[in-house]
Amino acid sequence: MNVAQAIAAALTPQGIFWTVLLLGLITFLHELGHYSAARRQGVKVDSFSVGMGPVLARRQWRGTEWRLSLLPVGGYVMIDGMAPEEDEHGQLRHSTTGFARLPALGRIAVLLAGPLVNLLLAVGLMTVMFSSLGVTANDRIRVSEVIAGSEAERLGLQPGDEIIALDGQDIPERTEIDGQPQPGYLQLGEVLSQPGPHTLTVQRTPGGEQRELAFDWTPVLNGERQLLGIRYGPGNDPVGVPQALGESLQTTAEAVPLVLGSFGKLLGEMFTLDLKGEQTDDVGGPIRITETVSQAAALNGWALVQIAVLLNLSLAVFNLLPIPGLDGGRIALVLIEMLRGRPLTFQQEQSVTAAGFLFVMFLMAFVLVRDVTRFF
């Protein structure tokens, strides 16, 4: 299989469909945040496009031209006063209308609204997921599938069972595997690497009767590694909506530094042109995202919700980076204006914005090339 065939195999129709749908919806809501914040302050929004590229259809509504564009990924809003205007001599200058006339905090509110919508979406989706499925509990092992004819089936394990102890010892929230801290539920693999008698303490339903399953285990037989025969993950604690919301906020607070760290590592790899660094899986390009979405869609709807949470968090954090051209870069320029007591000159701001645009384009190209090099 050559590189083109490998990439085509990774970009399944199902993955492409769900990727386009998720990214399109997430971007639409991001831009809707900017639109709403501008309109609430009396600023006209000239156009709102769903999609990018050539316009397929347009309709005027509430003073805004609503567009449907050809490329079904992304979108944009054109807010009055954001783009430069021409003076009487035909020279470009800062705009003097709409957005440009807002006080500094008003402009920050418009710029912040898009990423804030994505953060709220991530929190909302997590709250729905946690209140429906429960909160992840690493100190238990939840069986999701039992392989027919396996040792697990012989022991009587069933999907939905929760293993709460291994060899009579409670499963810790965190464990150490090969010197690295890992979630406690992964301790099962470490236990099964040891031959001899083992016991699993199993609870069929939350609060139900506990049973001990004893078996004699041989990790390697005739040169082949043996498997217990289950698919498993962390257990779940059922929670109400208020606790689910609290868990969502805490998870978001913990995730933001991790996302920032991933972007920081990506930038380090970009500056060193490291296409196959250890952090390759931290931030994916379009091919990686489509692969991941396809895998999630093949599992269940909740897996897609998890992907939507990650995409919203990533989009929010990335847009808030102080890179000219992004929302965070524009906010940085407003803050500089507040500190200086006057804005940068038009030429200075244009130079900074152009540099930021080139930087973002190079970053996108690097991520795409890194995506493709995985197939060589």
From TrEMBL:
SMART domains named among the record's database cross-references: PDZ
This protein's UniProt keywords:
Hydrolase, Membrane, Metalloprotease, Protease, Transmembrane, Transmembrane helix, Zinc
Write down the membrane topology: Multi-pass membrane protein
GO MF terms, alphabetically ordered? metalloendopeptidase activity
User: What GO cellular component is one of the record's annotations?
Assistant: membrane
Stated name of the protein = RIP metalloprotease
Query: Which InterPro entries does the UniProt record give?
Result: PDZ, PDZ_6, PDZ_sf, Pept_M50_Zn, Peptidase_M50
- Cofactor(s) required, per the database record: Zn(2+)
Q: Does the keyword DNA repair apply?
A: no
Where does it localize? Membrane
- Organism of provenance: Deinococcus radiophilus
